[in-house]
Amino acid sequence: MEEAFRDWIREIKDQKQLTEHDVERSIAYARDLLQGLAKLRTFPQGVSVYGSARSPETSKYYQSARKLGALLAQNGHAVVTGGGHGIMEAASRGAHEYGGRVLGLNIELPHEQTLNAYVTDMLEFRYFFARKVMLTMAAKVYVFYPGGFGTLDEFAEIMTLMQTQKMPRMPMILIGKKFWRPLDRFFYTRLEGNKLISKGDRAIYTITDDINEVVRVAEKIGHHKIDENIYDTLKAVKKPRKPKA
After folding, report:
1. pLDDT for the residue numbered 243
2. Dihedral of alpha carbons 124, 171, 160, 87, sign
3. 182: which strand partners?
4. Which of 47, 69, 133, 181 has its CA 20 to 30 A from that of 228?
């Protein structure tokens, strides 16, 4: 398959004057995505948990995420994280301690990011965008704990995909009212107030301190078979029309 892909890329290269670097880069992108998709086909859609890698074990959010992981495992829901420490470790730890299944999607960095000790299944990515795609496709519910730029990036991207109907609306739950309400207020006063977003856009997410809410929405969605994925039900993207000569 990879050789066929290379041939197709070279054909495009000949037509569009792509460089050899463009070809190799495209193949590397595709390899990251394909290995991720292959791994997802062996893993049931679960609950993706996002949050700061810097949250210490003493943090109330670390303790909350650990309890959440245990509750999800207790109810048969897999936990998906970026594989790092802090909140990711906490959710993985709680699920692992209860015997649940935990998928850690790690990223290659110049200064190596160590995988936490509580994942049961692991996949490492070279590119952030491929990892983000898999963190999204692996889940039926998205949970966001307080975090930094990375957490906010993931939150904004998934919310934008739902807002623009590029993916189905699935539950997004923000844990920590004290942390998230100022951002929600900014969205209301600055974005919605200036008609930069629609009134219904803020309904995409829910802010709460109750981790049981996560379990309730996961239970409402139910359990998918390992070889089922909600994205399989989406309509195929139409192929672009060829430009007229």
Report:
1. 37
2. negative
3. none
4. 69
